[in-house]
Amino acid sequence: MVKKAYLSPFTLAVVDFFLFNVSFFGMNYWKRGNFELSPQYIKLLIAFYTIWLLVSLFTKKFRFDFHKSYRVLLLLLTRSTLYIVYCVALVVVIVGLHGFSRLQVFGTCGLFFIGEVIVFSLYYVMINREDVAYAGADYVKPKSKPKSLIVLYVSDFLLVTFIFFLVNYLKRGTFVLSPEYEKLLLIIYGLWFITALITRKFNPGYRNYYYAMAQWTKAVIFMAATMAVLIFAFRLFYYSRLHIFGFLALLLIAEFFLYLIYYVLSKNDNNGGDIESVGEVAVVIRQEDLSLDIDIEKLRERLTNPVRDTLREVFSDAPGVFEFLDETVDLSHIIRAETTIADSRERIRLTILDKHLTRLLINSIRINDIRWLNRYFLEAHKIILPGGYFAGRVRTVDLYSKKFFEKYPKYFSQVLYFVDFVFRRIFPKLPVMKKIYFTLTKGKNRAISRAEALGRLCFCGFKIVAEREIGEDLHFIAQKVKTSSADENPSYGYLVRFNRVGANGGNIVVYKFRTMHPYSEYLQEYIYEMNKLQPGGKIKDDFRVTTLGRFMRRTWLDELPMFYNWIRGEMNLVGVRPLSYQYFDLYPEDLQELRKDVVPGLIPPFYVDLPKTFEEICESERRYINAYLAHPVKTQWGYFWKAVFNIVVRKARSS
C-alpha cells in the first residue's frame, strides 16, 4: 500500500513562504535593528517573491515525493536555493542595482536554506518513521560517465578565448587585455571548466543534437548566473556588463555551430563511408557469379511459390511487420508473381498487360511523404485484383507528437511543438497558406491523423481490414472491395458539408464546423463495426473526433452553421436528427418510412426523453413523429421548452 503525504502541496507552499519571510525580515532586523523596509528594499522583496515562486514551480519543490531518499530531498533544496541566489544576482547585476546589501541578499538565502532543511527534514522523518534508517537503501550507483571528447574540449576552449578577445577588440579597439581583464579571463576559464563538468556538455551519449545543445545552453546560463553572483558578492561592478554578457551571448551562438559541425561529422563517420573496392562490393551485395544458363521452368516455379517465406526474409529487419501481414492475410495462397513492393513516392506506374496484376501491394515508405496521396491510392487501386490487399504505414499525428516530445528537451518542446502545429496542421487547411505549405515542403513529412489516413483509403475504394502500431508507425492493411467514392468534395477545411437524409427521403446538405479529422466521414461503417454505439446513439470511442471538436460538440458551437439550413427551410427548430445514409440504414424499416414524413430539426427529441440505448432512441423519435403528425404546433412548442429545461437545468449533453 502506497503511503500518502499528510500535507498538500499548497500547505507546503504556505509553510515555505512563511520560512522565506522569516529569513528576509530576520536578516533585515539583524542588519538595521528593525523590521521596517525602505522603498528600495520593498522592490527587492517583490523580486525575491517572484523568483521564489518561479523557482519553486520550476523545481516542483512542493510536489516532491517524500518517500524518496533523503539524499534526493537535500539535493532538491540545495538546487532550489542556488537557483534563487543566481536569479537575484543576475537581476541586481544586469539592472545595475549596486546599493543592495550583500549580507541581506546572501544571508536571506542562507537562512532560508537552513530553515527549509530543518522543516522538510522533520516532515520527511514524520512521513517515513518506519524506514527512515533506510533512507539511502535504494540508492543505485550511477553509471560511469562517458569519456569526454578531447577534440571538442580543445575546440570549445579555443572558442572561449577567441570570443573573449574579439569582444575586447570590439569594446576597446585592441586585442591587448588590461591586467584586470586578464584576471576576468582566468575567472571565465574556471567557470567554463566547472560548468562543463556540472552539465556534462561534452558527453557524447546524447540522444540527438537538440538534447546536447540543451546542456550547452545550460552551461552558458550557469556561467552567466555564477558570474553575476561573483560580481555582486565581491563588488566587481567595474567590469563591463556588455563585455561579460555580450561575450556569453556570442559564445552560445558560436557553440551552436561548433557542436553542429561535430555532430554532422560524427554522424558521417558512423556511416562507414562509400564502397570503394571490389571486395566491399562482394560483401555488401553478396552477388553470385553471373550465369547466362537460365532454367526457365525453375524460374517459373520460383515465381509461383507462395510469397510467405520471401516476405519473412524481406522484413527480417522490421520486427512485427511480417507477423502483422501473416496474421491478417493468407500469404500461403498468394504467389510471388502476384506481390509488388512499391518504394517510390511517385505514383505507381506499372504496365498493365492483363488489366490487373497484383493481389498484394506493399508500400514500403510512409505515406506522409507522398504529395498526391489520393492519386497514389487510386493508382494502387487500379493495379490490385478485386479482393486484393494494399499494405502500408503512416506516422500519425499522435505518434508524431509522442516522438517529437522525446526528441526535443523538456523546456523547449512545448514552444517548438506549437510552431510545428501551426505550420504542419493549420497552414495546409487555409486556402492561401495551403499552396505556400506544399510549395515549401513538396508534400513531405505532412501531418496525417489516423482517421485521415484510413478515411482516404476508404474514399479510394478500400476497406480497412486491420491496423497496428509497430515501432513509430501505424501499419494498415486495406482490401479492394469497391470502386472509389463518388463524392467529389471530401471534407478537409474547417467548414464542412455533409449529405443527410431530409424530408421525403431526399438529400439535404448540412453545414457544420469541423469536429473530426479530414476524411472521417468515409469511416462511418468501419467505426460502427469496430466500436458499436454508446448510450445516446453516438459512436463509442470515436477516434475521429479532435480535442477541439469534443469541446465544440459539448457547447454546440459546431452546429451554428446549420442555422443556414433552418433559414432555407430545410430544417425546423425542433425535429429528428438529420442522419447520414449509413446511420439511417441502421434504423428499422418502419421508422425509416416514418422519418420521411417530417423535416429534420436543430433540437432533436433526444433532449426531451434522454434515451440511453439505440432502441430507446428509435422509440423516442417514433413517439415524437406520431405526436407531430397529429398536433404539429403543440408538439413543437412542448418539445422545445422541455428540451431547453433539460439542457439548461439538467445539463443534458450529446457527447
Describe this structure in words.
The chain is α/β, with parallel strands linked by helices and 655 residues long. The protein folds into 4 domains: 9-134, no CATH class; 150-269, no CATH class; 298-396 and 448-480, 2-Layer Sandwich (Translation Initiation Factor IF3); 495-648, no CATH class. The chain has 25 helices and 9 strands. Strands 1-2-3-5-4 form a 5-stranded mixed sheet, with helices on both faces. Helix 3 crosses helix 7, helix 7 packs antiparallel against helix 8 (241-270) and helix 24 (614-630) crosses helix 25 (632-648). The radius of gyration is 35 Å and the shape is extended.
- Proportion of beta-strand residues: 5-15%
What is the tally of helical segments? 25
Rg estimate, integer Å: 35 Å
Q: Tell me the count of domains.
A: 4
Main beta sheet strand tally, sense and closure: 5 strands, mixed
In the predicted model, the low-confidence regions spanning at least 5 consecutive residues are 1-5, 130-148, 350-355
State the helical fraction: 40-55%
Structural class: alpha/beta
Number of strands: 9
> What is the quaternary state of this protein?
single chain
Mean pLDDT: 81
Instruction: Give the overall shape, derived from the CA principal axes.
Output: extended
User: What is the straight-line distance between the termini?
Assistant: 36 Å
Task: Quickly describe the structure.
The chain has 655 residues and is an alpha/beta fold. It contains 25 helices and 9 strands. A 5-stranded mixed β-sheet has the order 1-2-3-5-4, sandwiched between helices. Strands 6-7 form a two-stranded antiparallel ribbon. It has a two-stranded parallel sheet with strand order 8-9.
